[in-house]
Task: inverse folding
């Protein structure tokens, strides 16, 4: 049932949240005449003129209040039923809420609003207008957004369909029935945390630092050797080890190699290296883990320092034993 008293209070909160946007000096709609003039094409309005952090937070606050009303909760089933007619068939499963309660759908919508709030907090406006972004300051927001996506009710039980949809864009087919996106997102969060460690260790603090590296690579001016450090190899090991636990890697690696790599090397001696006939996905993952272990042991032995010409510590025998056994 609709609780009109409850909703009236929330709608008042929504209006109050929007007042700063409506009163913004860049808002050209000061009267009904202005609104009709705009509708009649008397003047153009570039809505981005109203975009700043304060206004975005105001809009999100208003949206949160509106979504919290019982009016939305009660009207949502009708709205969703109408919306299905506008969703392309290949995306229809994403909009399927048949197995969800209205409360779960509303909870998802509120979480989407929270995700948008985090994106604003991470520096979206400054990035859009000034191409400036403090990368390190975005860590908490990036992880929180991944956690929100992981926990969305509407995505539950749709793992295989989501991956099948993604694979359709590259015309690839694979058995996706054993993929768990929730588990993989937990592992992806581990990877993202390590990527931020890489950013800090290599002083990639601003988005411009990344642009600089990309430009150096494109211009063949990138100093690869300066990044061959034990810290970076340690981070690489952490990321690769996590990747070996991804169900996406376990289920899709061999089909992806067959689809994209084999045709590239067909007719050459390299084709023998990527021939995985009779090679199981479990064996593939186990081999990946062995390779990661070798890299870790080599780094512990001091391989990066040896590569740079430093003295070899032959007494450090444990990593050598680990590689050989």
Result:
């Amino acid at each position: 049932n609709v609780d009109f008293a409850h909703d009236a209070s929330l709608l008042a909160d929504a209006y109050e949240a929007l007042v700063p946007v409506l009163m913004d000096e860049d808002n050209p709609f000061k009267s009904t005449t202005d609104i009709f003039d705009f509708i009649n094409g008397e003047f153009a309005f570039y809505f981005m003129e109203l975009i700043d952090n304060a206004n975005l937070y105001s809009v999100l606050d208003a949206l949160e209040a509106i979504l919290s009303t019982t009016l939305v909760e009660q009207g949502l089933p009708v709205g969703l039923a109408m919306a299905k007619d506008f969703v392309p068939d290949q995306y229809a499963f994403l909009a399927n809420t048949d197995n969800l309660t209205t409360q779960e759908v509303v909870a998802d919508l509120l979480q989407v609003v929270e995700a948008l709030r985090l994106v604003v907090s991470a520096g979206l406006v400054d990035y859009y207008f000034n191409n400036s972004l403090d990368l390190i300051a975005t860590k908490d927001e990036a992880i929180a957004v991944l956690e929100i996506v992981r926990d969305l009710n509407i995505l539950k039980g749709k793992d295989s369909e989501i991956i099948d949809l993604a694979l359709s864009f590259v015309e690839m087919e694979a058995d996706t029935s054993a993929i768990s996106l929730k588990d993989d997102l937990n592992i992806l969060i581990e990877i993202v945390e390590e990527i931020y460690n890489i950013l800090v260790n290599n002083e990639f603090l601003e988005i411009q630092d990344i642009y600089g590296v990309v430009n150096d690579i494109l211009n063949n001016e990138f100093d690869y050797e300066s990044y061959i450090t034990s810290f970076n190899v340690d981070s690489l090991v952490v990321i690769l080890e996590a990747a070996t636990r991804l169900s996406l890697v376990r289920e899709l690696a061999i089909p992806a190699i067959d689809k994209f790599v084999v045709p590239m090397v067909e007719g050459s001696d390299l084709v023998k290296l990527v021939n995985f006939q009779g090679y199981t996905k479990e064996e593939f993952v186990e081999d990946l883990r062995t390779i990661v272990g070798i890299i870790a042991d080599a780094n512990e032995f001091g391989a990066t320092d040896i590569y740079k010409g430093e003295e070899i510590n032959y007494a450090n025998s444990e990593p050598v034993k680990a590689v050989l056994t």
Q: What stands out?
A: The mean pLDDT is 94. DSSP finds 15 helices and no strands in the chain.
